[in-house]
């Protein structure tokens, strides 16, 4: 044998011995607790009795067909873009549609079937839609006052309307140049607090949010941080979690949360990155951008699991969005890809 092969053999034996020595220390978890080893369930995480693992989210429908009449001109038609439904589903919850043009009595009954509500983006800022949104928002606050943990998520227009309602001032927003604008975020100290949207993000993603463009802003109105902080009603209710810059480098509040209520206002739209594909939409599509969508869904649904509401399963099933079929409106290459239409 050459010196080389002797060395190789020696090395191989050393490896074998090392591997054997390692072997003696390798135990399956079940082998460490012999008394438990018969029960295979010992490896499943115990569920938390304080959490609800079948959460349902109410989404308020928006006037129109969501496609400027390409899909439906029926009077009183309303829609929910399917991207919001997919967003909620991806977090592990189901959706019940709340129709903006149904009676307060019906809305109240449906709100007893859900564990949180979501307000979408859109264009309607007054009339029956605003009234319905205000009614649902007030009911959500009352549920929280009554001891439930009932989260509210307002995205883009939905968030801006919550700011207007809390401020009780129609002209509290200012114009910004932020239509279809991929953005980074400046996170404020409060973004780390328990119960904040960003607290649910993995650390590496949080770092990237401030340097990379992982979110999409798509709005013309917003509030400056200064105005939010100097408006007594707004500063009593909200704290700022994140700000961003528009195209003219004007700073606006991008995320705010209720100080005493699980209410989140978010001007950027997490559902777009993963679920809307209109060709002019500049939504970020990188893996990290998709993780932003997923982390946001995890946040919202984890808040809904804290709700103490335990509705009757059959009543929930009878009202789920699965009773409706989404319509593909994306063939024009613009607007929402799929919408649920309610005629
Ligand atoms: C709705 O009305 C517009 C304008 O008249 C028309 O172009 C469009 O085709 C109509 N949409 C449907 C679904 O009928
Ligand atoms: C928005 O910003 C772009 C790019 O800076 C600029 O060309 C455009 O005029 C601005 N729009 C408005 C309405 O100010």
Automatic annotation (TrEMBL):
One of its GO terms (cellular component) is extracellular region. Its EC number is 3.4.19.9. Its main location: secreted. It is an enzyme of class 3 (hydrolase). Keywords: Hydrolase, Secreted, Signal. It catalyses: (6S)-5,6,7,8-tetrahydrofolyl-(gamma-L-Glu)(n) + (n-1) H2O = (6S)-5,6,7,8-tetrahydrofolate + (n-1) L-glutamate. It is found in: Secreted, Extracellular space. One of its GO terms (biological process) is tetrahydrofolylpolyglutamate metabolic process. Coiled coil: none annotated. GO terms for molecular function: gamma-glutamyl-peptidase activity. It comes from the Eukaryota. Residues 1-21 form the signal peptide. InterPro entries: Class_I_gatase-like (IPR029062), Pept_C26_g-glut_hydrolase (IPR015527), Peptidase_C26 (IPR011697). Gene3D superfamilies: 3.40.50.880. Belongs to the peptidase C26 family. This is folate gamma-glutamyl hydrolase. It comes from Sphenostylis stenocarpa. The lineage of its organism: Eukaryota, Viridiplantae, Streptophyta, Embryophyta, Tracheophyta.
